[in-house]
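In this section we walk through a basic example: taking a raw amino acid sequence and producing a predicted 3D structure, encoded as discrete structure tokens. The instruction is simple. Fold the sequence below.
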Amino acid sequence: MAGHGRHLSRSCAVQALYQWMVTGQRCNVTGDGLVDCGRLAGQYRDFYLHLVRNIPEHVELLDRLLVPHLDRSIEDVDLVELAILRVGSYELKHHLETPSKVIINEAIRLAKTFSSEYGYRFVNGVLDKVACEVRSEAEA
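The resulting token sequence is shown next.
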């Protein structure tokens, strides 16, 4: 159940970040409004709120981590995939307690749900390279 709760937190965060990128509105940190995350409670709601508060604050750093590993300009990356990449790279950089494989597998799962048919391959390739850059060889 813990994995399911965290997955739902990430899923809601991707949706909120996507809406932020499209509308320019800051993510609604109350959990009401931009994304319906009423199914989240306790630590999973806290994790969602943590992501939607902190990723916009660190977006420039996250994009600097991503850009060297993209096969196109960041402006040409699909916004859904970019939201997933930002969540994944944020976790890789700031949540060292979560194994890289877990973060990358979650990003792949989100891409299979929200992205184009083969978007998960792009997400996997980019986050794999980011993991090698920000985590030790033994952990990545």
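Looking at the output, two observations stand out. Helices lie at 2-23, 42-57, 59-66, 79-94, 100-114, 119-134. Confidence is low (pLDDT under 50) at residues 30-34. In the next section we compare this with other chains.
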